[in-house]
Design goal:
The chain has 367 residues and is an all-alpha fold. It is built from 16 helices and no strands. It has one domain.
């Protein structure tokens, strides 16, 4: 047996080559990560666990649920794109709702176990977080339905695989976002911290995904030692960087939405949202609420579309386009992390999430 064959049958070897690039990324972001090491480790573990619901869904998506023959969204979307019928659209929407709430429930359970076992949060605090985070599934269901409606309308003549990669983007970003919210909802005190915790979750997710990928390709006799290490390097640099970018961008929009009250009131004084203020006056829905919903929807859509484009470029062999895309996204993420205004002004926490104790008086009040 050759050295390559013996190494690739060793789980310690796989764990090392999967963890090493993660450590390098952590070193790269060392000045822009949560300072509390306890939270950092727990968030990384939570990110690792975020792979579990995706893999379980893939394993059991052929099983019937209630009146659906299966819950495979890729099949439903494929049928919708090819048949363009109302029944296919209804089946896709129904399956989307079931899958999203199924993943939400599963993530809630595993995060409840993790947090109560580690003593990071009590069950009472977790129950309050659950009620707060219940909004998340509706954002992703809305995005999934929008995707289905666009496919049904046939306004974009895209390859069927592109649509499928959009669904991949929705599911993976949804799961990572849920883990972020459940593990750090009450710990995020600024927009910058929302980005930081999002990066840690993405690194945990990428670690497990890389471990599975390296294990799978090692069993193929097509690769020599140099080719295998080249794949490891490419995967470690590009794939991990992509996951970090998608999550960080969504984390930025989530952070802005989380602190919508302060941010929106300041921007209103600068007259940056005249249309939203008119809507507020007409339907009497607070402008901060509209601003929150808008930013969350923007973040979900952008992360999903970028994820879908990236996967499509790799699938169709346009690696030379995927590399600069990841580079540009990382440039944006680093720029956001070094934007002092995000860390010092926009993300001021006005009230504690689960108590009535005020930390800082609001800098603006509605006139």
């Amino acid at each position: 047996m050759s050295l390559f064959e013996s190494l690739t049958q060793n789980w310690l070897f796989f764990g090392t080559i999967s963890l090493l690039p993660i450590l390098l990324w952590l070193f790269f972001f060392r000045n822009n990560l949560p300072k509390n090491k306890h939270y950092l480790v727990l968030t990384f573990i939570a990110g690792m666990l975020s792979v579990l619901p995706i893999k379980l869904y893939e394993k059991y998506w052929d099983q019937g649920v209630v009146f659906l023959a299966h819950t495979n969204l890729f099949v439903y979307l494929g049928d919708l794109v090819s048949s363009n019928s109302a029944s296919a659209l209804l089946a896709y929407i129904t399956a989307t709702v079931m899958v999203v709430f199924g993943i939400f429930t599963f993530v809630a359970l595993i995060m409840m176990v993790l947090e109560t076992m580690t003593g990071d949060n009590s069950f009472v605090v977790f129950r309050r977080k659950f009620r707060k985070i219940l909004e998340a599934p509706f954002f992703f269901i809305s995005v999934g339905i929008i995707c289905g409606l666009v496919a049904f309308a046939g306004t974009l003549s895209m390859h069927e695989k592109v649509w499928l990669f959009m669904i991949v983007g929705i599911l993976e970003e949804f799961t990572k976002h849920l883990v972020l919210r459940f593990s750090n909802e009450e710990k995020i005190h600024s927009v910058g911290e929302a980005i930081q915790f999002s990066i840690v979750v993405a690194l945990g997710f990428a670690f497990v995904e890389n471990l599975q990928y390296f294990t799978n390709i090692s069993g193929m006799s097509l690769f020599s030692w140099p080719e295998f290490m080249m794949l490891v390097a490419l995967r470690s640099l590009v794939s991990v960087g992509a996951h970090v970018s998608f999550s960080a961008i969504l984390g930025y929009f989530y952070g802005v939405a989380k602190f919508a009250n302060n941010i929106y009131q300041r921007e209103v004084l600068e007259n940056r949202h005249p249309i939203m203020e008119k809507i507020h006056q007409i339907i009497h829905l607070k402008g901060e609420v509209l601003f929150h919903e808008q930013k969350m929807m923007e973040g979900v859509l952008l992360a999903m579309v970028l994820h879908g484009i990236y996967n499509s470029l790799l699938e169709f062999g346009y690696v030379s386009f995927a590399l600069p895309m990841v580079g540009m996204m990382m440039f944006v993420v680093v720029g956001l992390l070094h934007h002092k205004q995000l860390l010092q002004e926009n993300g001021v926490l006005v009230k504690r999430r689960f108590s009535n104790e005020s930390l800082i008086e609001p800098p603006f009040t509605r006139l």
